[in-house]
Specification:
homodimer; 228 residues; mainly alpha; Tetracycline Repressor, domain 2; two-stranded antiparallel sheet; 2 strands; 64% helix; DNA-binding
Chain lengths: 228, 228
DNA sequence: GTCTATACTCTGATAGAC
DNA sequence: GTCTATCAGAGTATAGAC
């Protein structure tokens, strides 16, 4: 099922090596020699594939952010009820952060390593993504289905909560990613006091994304499920 | 009011320089020469005050964790109702993470830089602290005042949310730390569906810590409010 | 594409004079 | 306590042969 027949190109091996080392030791804490060694080539050969160490980092970030946004867009496509949009955004965010932990941690931790133009690119990606959260929260507050005291604080707090999954989740632990994603949906709905009239809305009341949806949206990729 | 008369000892200058640089560039990304320069002495003199670069890091972490735990212990001392304990733990956590952002970010980000025994020391501190959260959540669930589907996931999710404040909060922004702390209390109470019978409990219903309490518990310290 | 060899800078840390 | 000078190794990146 999860068998990758192709024996991984050099580019892929470098990409995976970078994910492992950057997420474990940090970008600054990883040397070119170490990276080359982990990818199975010499430091000089490495430079036939990556313009520079920072190019490698920025590529990881752009690709990761892009996948997150594309998945989120697909998840809320055509959905009108704001509490369902919010729930699905949380579910995708948690599922992705639990499935691509190394990548998400690198994106999260090493943003400040980017210089100038690269930094702006990644920032624009993040702003576009977070705008989806802001609009779901705003629409939910406007239609009184969500109770949001401070839009900005709530958005940042919920994003922090859902991003945290990349830091503490372990696939060998007691829960699997999908369960965690649903539990977070419930935390998000509860924390915004989602309700229709007097009746509060729970994860089970909404049409969330099922396991099959994620299998389609996020087919097995080499960096998925990778351990710490 | 916030005037520090004493002109800062060499130890303090080094400590503050380390906080600034480690939080901005990371531990691995900060060199000894840079650190010495920022503290206003030569690299060699630096070593009259710090055994090694890692000693400096571990001291920052132990002191920071210690302050957080002492503040939290003081905040819940003698409090029996679990929802009040949880609320105050969240309030302290957020207030500290918003007030000592550099320090908290270093503690959060550079844990993996610690080797062996140092790592275990910091881990033990964190476990002791998080046990207070676990017990508040557990007691709240047992007395049915909190609704906690999964104790572990909820604890980790709420801690991630409250820790996030150190990453996004800016004192020059629209909210002050105290406001943020109260808003997070409300998010935490809502996310655990805190209620007595049918009536849900909000931050305003509980006796939280007031501004004066924090002034006493966390008197102005040189690393407080420091910017990014 | 791969490699060995190397350039030049910076790393954490120390010796020893003052 | 301060400093200048220095160590051995690791930092990123390139030259040039194959």
């Amino acid at each position: 099922m999860t068998t990758t027949a192709t024996p991984a190109s050099t580019e892929q091996r470098i990409h995976l090596a970078a994910l492992r080392l950057f997420s474990r030791q940090g970008y600054a804490g990883t040397g070119i020699r170490e990276l080359a060694d982990e990818a199975g080539l010499s430091p000089a050969s490495l430079y036939n594939h990556i313009g520079s160490k920072e190019d490698l980092l920025v590529r990881i970030m752009l690709e990761g952010n892009d996948r997150l946004e594309r998945t989120a867009v697909a998840a809320v496509q055509g959905i009108e009820r704001p509490e369902v949009r919010l729930a699905r955004l949380a579910q995708v965010h948690v599922f992705v952060h639990g499935s691509f932990r190394q990548e998400c941690r690198v994106i999260d931790a090493e943003f400040s390593e980017l210089s100038g133009a690269h930094r702006q690119l990644v920032l624009d990606q993040r702003d576009a993504y977070e705008a989806m959260w802001a609009s779901a929260l705003q629409d939910g507050a406007n239609s009184a289905v969500l109770s949001v005291a401070d839009l900005r604080v709530t958005r940042l707090a919920l994003l922090s909560m859902c991003t945290g999954v990349a830091h503490w989740f372990r696939p060998e632990g007691p829960n699997d990613v999908y369960d965690i994603s649903v539990r977070h949906v419930d935390l998000v709905l509860a924390s915004t006091r989602a309700a229709r009239g007097r009746r509060s809305i729970r994860a089970g009341d909404l049409t969330l994304l099922d396991r099959a949806w994620f299998d389609l949206a996020l087919p097995d990729q080499p960096d998925r499920q990778a351990s710490a």
